[in-house]
Amino acid sequence: MTPSLFALVDCNNFYASCERMFRPDLAGRPIVVLSNNDGCVVARSAEAKQLGIKMAVPVYQIANQLRQHHVAVFSSNYALYADISNRVMTTLEQMVPKVEVYSIDEAFLDLSRLDKCIDIHQLALDIYQRIPQWIGISVCVGIGPTKTLAKLANHAAKRYPATRGVVDLRDRERQRRLMALIPVDEVWGIGRRLTKRLNIMGINTALQLADAHPKLIRDTFSVTVERTVRELNGIDCDDIQEVAATKQQIISSRSFGSRIDNLEAMQQAINEYTFRACEKLRSERQYAKAMSVFVRTSPFSDATPQYSKSLSGSLVRPSNDTRDFVTLGQSLLQSIWREGHAYAKAGVMLGDFFGAGVFQLGLFDDVTPRPKSKELMQLLDKVNHSGHGKIWFAGQGIDPTWGMKREQLSPRYTTQWAQLPIVK
DNA sequence: TCTGGGGTCCTAGGACCC
DNA sequence: TCTGGGGTCCTAGGACCC
């Protein structure tokens, strides 16, 4: 068996870099990009990081700092980021045969066997130079015998400028020297809670975790953490997934722009989320049988009583007709709705998926499919994607007050003709 | 006043069945 | 009367990722 070899290519400050691509006037100025509802910071340019602005900090807590340092603030513009991401991924796919798009701003490359015929280090340098040249976004490249080590290598490439954007961790001694320097919480798969518990056990660095006994780790934590230990030791537990796995659930949920306290508004919100979830379901060419609905108050307001409830239900047969899920969703909402709370967030989840034509009806199930369901849903999706107006259900409400805040949105430079940047 | 959204995987506990 | 143990399904929750 050929030993495996991976590279991780990760864009630098991706959302902030996308915003700056079209605003050369912002060169050198700190940039932050905000989450939905303009709630908290989800991306920072290098300058913003230097100001000490932390990831995920609520905006209102740093409002003064943003003003004082003249920080450029953007609402997140996913249409723009997705388009730039596609260009980066396409370029990588032209350079390497097997690419796994892991998230909007990073991809794993399968280099196994490739190292027999090409110079891996040169390939990494080519990627490092070509992506900024062609797309306008800078990247770092990490190389290692497992995904976890490639991640770690990438982390080092970002942290230490002397590496000039490429770190190659094929050598075991190099792996150990680096791991000794890296705190355990920087390891992929080790988050805040696990770090706390590992620290109590005296495990503080990546190397100490690598040297821990896998069996002990499994018994104390879980198989997931055990796998991480093995990966740190160069044992590959996670192959490249070139084709995105079929989704197992679809979630549509939002915090409200302002709190909801009446049933009618909540019914509209649930209908809206149901509508979006079904759109996604059809774009995945799937049919769902299960649905759950949840509502909750804000976990951050400790003065008022908290309420959080979810409930699942099931259709008799899988469907992707929005009307079926609107009916089910509303009845689930009825059961969990409690008057007298200031609701901050709600959502719907679809699950238990079937491909077209897979599901067998029970012998005595008496359900006639809706006539023309497919045609109607296709028409709905077509109109709504055409850019010429929208069709929606009356139950979604018109111009709801609880809708999302996006006050700092940049233009859709690359995906709407009317918003193309102008070169003077 | 103001704290994201969309995913995955794993585990524990209760109900129910044989 | 025998009240054990294993399997499955469901729900809820924890933890992680970007």
UniProtKB/TrEMBL annotation:
Domain UmuC: 6-191
Transmembrane segments: none
Nucleotidyltransferase found in the keyword field: yes
Keyword Oxidoreductase: no
One of the record's GO molecular function terms: DNA-directed DNA polymerase activity
Positions in coiled-coil regions: none
One Pfam family named in its UniProt record: IMS_C
Annotated EC: 2.7.7.7
Keywords: DNA damage, DNA repair, Nucleotidyltransferase, SOS mutagenesis, SOS response, Transferase
InterPro entries xref list: DNA/RNA_pol_sf, DNA_pol_Y-fam_lit_finger_sf, DNA_pol_Y-fam_little_finger, DNA_polymerase-Y, DUF4113, Rev_trsase/Diguanyl_cyclase, UmuC
Family: Belongs to the DNA polymerase type-Y family.
NCBIfam families: PRK03609.1
Protein name: Translesion error-prone DNA polymerase V subunit UmuC
Organism phylogeny: Bacteria, Pseudomonadati, Pseudomonadota, Gammaproteobacteria, Alteromonadales
This protein's encoding gene: umuC
